[in-house]
Design a protein that fits this description.
Strand 2, helix 2 and strand 3 form a beta-alpha-beta unit. It is globular and about 60 Å long. The strands form two sheets. An eight-stranded parallel barrel has the order 1-2-3-4-7-8-9-10, surrounded by five helices. Strands 5-6 form a two-stranded antiparallel ribbon. Helices cover 43% and strands 14% of the residues. The chain is an alpha/beta fold. It has two domains: 268 residues, Luciferase-like domain (TIM Barrel, Alpha-Beta Barrel); 52 residues, no CATH class. It contains 14 helices and ten strands.
Length: 343
């Protein structure tokens, strides 16, 4: 299993480049920039890194067709791919924070989100092949003029879907080059991989190097108090706390109710940067941190390595580790303790 790194969206492009250079030296497979509504553009942020590195893959996630038409996503992705000599990636999602900030509401039926992502992948695949296409007439997206992107001469970029729920997993495995799951903990992995294999079985041609990644929060620090503060602050974004919720893997019903009834307190801990989650017993918060992220100090890394080996045994090809405060410190810790142990 390879290690990938996901950065906070507030890292400036030159900082992304510096981290990419170090990550490449350490043997990190890929570096992802995060796509948020009020930070650096995820694609633009990759350009200095593309110019400063030669091997590491460089990707933007999560990018939604609700915020950017699939044809423009394809154009931007292929441009970054040329600048990186064939090392660009994108992870397509059905919605996300940028769409929400733009006042775009998610459709009540999930199948519409699956359809939008499917059409986006189809359009990017068509653009990537460099052939002449007269048009594209989808249910959600249309291209009304001929398009051909034969100016793109590098090896084609990698196209991922952000897939965690069953329909999206099956669709992504059927069409894309890889998947980025989000916060899939060990108890959730077997069912997720079952859906991945269903999708892989429906491909027109077998996948040569299909990648299955999993976004995973890394809060391990030199100091335990600093680690736990960061983990509590960011807990609101761990996937099991968000709809459609998968807390039943970790908590009994009465504790799930406490968490959901006090969800605004998790939000407040993030937006106010306090890490204080009021009205939720500490043992519940600590248990969720334990199950849904890597936290603690360097003394806890051997325990985390056991978890990571279970991820690999469960079918992941990549673990996409999300760094938060002081990302270079986290990267060097991963380079020293994690990457060598998983080779």
């Amino acid at each position: 299993m390879d290690i990938e790194i996901i950065l906070e969206p507030d890292v400036p492009p030159q900082g992304v480049a510096e981290i990419a250079v170090e990550a490449e030296k350490l043997g990190v497979r890929a570096l992802w920039t995060s796509n948020y509504h009020h930070n650096w553009d995820a694609f633009v942020s990759l350009v200095p890194a593309a110019q400063a590195t030669s091997k590491i893959f460089l990707g933007a996630l999560a990018v939604s067709p609700l915020e950017m038409h699939p044809l423009k996503i394809a154009n931007t992705l292929l441009s970054v791919n040329e600048l990186s000599n064939g090392r660009a990636m994108v992870a397509i999602s059905g919605g996300g924070g940028v769409a929400g900030a733009m006042g775009i509401k998610m459709e009540p039926k999930k199948l519409k989100s699956v359809g939008r992502v499917r059409e986006t992948v189809e359009i990017i695949l068509a653009a990537r092949d460099g052939q002449f296409h007269k048009s594209y007439d989808g249910e959600h997206y249309q291209i009304t003029r001929p398009f051909i992107m034969n100016w793109a001469t590098s090896d084609g970029p990698q196209i991922y879907t952000c897939s965690t729920e069953p329909q999206m997993l099956r669709m992504g495995a059927r069409l894309a080059d890889g998947l980025q799951m989000s916060d899939v903990a060990i108890p959730m992995l077997p069912k997720a991989m079952e859906n991945v294999h269903i999708g892989l079985g429906k491909r027109d041609t077998p996948a040569k190097d299909f990648r299955v990644g999993n976004f995973w929060a890394w809060h391990i620090k030199k100091d335990r108090e600093t680690s736990m503060h960061e983990a509590r602050r960011e807990l609101v974004f761990r996937g099991s706390l968000l709809p459609p919720h998968s807390l039943d893997h970790f908590l009994p019903e009465d504790e799930i109710k406490i968490v959901l009834d006090n969800f605004p307190e998790f939000q407040k801990a993030y937006w106010m940067r306090t890490g204080v989650i009021e009205n939720v017993p500490e043992h519940i918060v600590n248990h969720l941190i334990e199950e849904l992220s890597s936290s603690g100090t360097e003394e806890d890394i051997p325990k985390e390595l056991e978890r990571f080996r279970q991820f690999a045994d469960g079918g992941l090809t990549d673990l996409s580790i999300r760094l938060f405060d002081n990302p270079m410190d986290g990267l060097k810790m991963i380079g020293e303790h994690v990457i060598p142990a998983l080779r």
